[in-house]
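To whoever is on call:

I kicked off a structure prediction for a single chain this morning and the downstream step that reads the tokens threw a length-mismatch warning. I double-checked the sequence; it's 266 residues and nothing unusual in it as far as I can see. Pasting both halves so you can look.
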Amino acid sequence: MSFKHFSIESLPDSIGELIHLRYLNVSNTPIVTLSESLCKLYNLQTLKLRNCFKLEMLPSRMQDLVNLHYLDIRGAFCLKEMPKEMSKLKHLNFLSDYIVGKHEENGIRELGTLDNLHGSFCISNLENIKNSGEALKAKMGNKKHINTLTLNWLPKGNIDDFQNERDILDKLQPHENLKELSIEGYRGETFPDCIWRFLILPPLGLAALHLEQLYINKCPEIDCFDEKCLPQSLETLEIKQCQKLASWITSKGLQSQGRTRLILDQ
């Protein structure tokens, strides 16, 4: 069933009676709410909510959609957090975004069981993670099928504990199969060692690192990096709205790094 591009703001409660429905597309609609009865669709495998720019929340019983394989919420910018217990959706192999909530039941640890995710994945509202122990429970290193990862912090004023921010990023270390990494709004003063270990080509080729794209955006406290850490596979390094880092790169004359294309925007 597809309502794509329909001018609808809600779905009727009767949607829950279509118990054999496997595919539902509500993308590109001005929908504001989704009926809780949607969570009775136990056979639903695909739910597309892309560019539902007015959607304010997902149904609270999303964890009941135990056969869900595909959930796309890209462009649903009004969503503030995920429903609780998303960890129960163990058949998910595509989840476009995870919006970290402030509570344990919809926090970062809910990603720990979702090791079968494929393709691109964005984690946002990382400022809601209280400590690195929570971040470690996401088990990002186990998600070997994710090839594009975005880690996004939203602005939250001045940060007193830069070390905690650094430790959280350290515990979100992705699998070495990753090809594209974006870091946005990171508020630490330095990158953790895991990022550089991820970028450095290991001795004797003990691990096959494949990173091709690295994007660093809105990280105002970062002021330098070890240029020797750029991996041989890296094709594009894009740095935007990082004034300290951009100034340092310019002063060091690092605009050219072999085969790596550097995009610098102060």
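Update from on-call: the warning came from a stale cache, not from the record. Cleared it. Sanity check on the structure: The longest helix spans residues 162-171.
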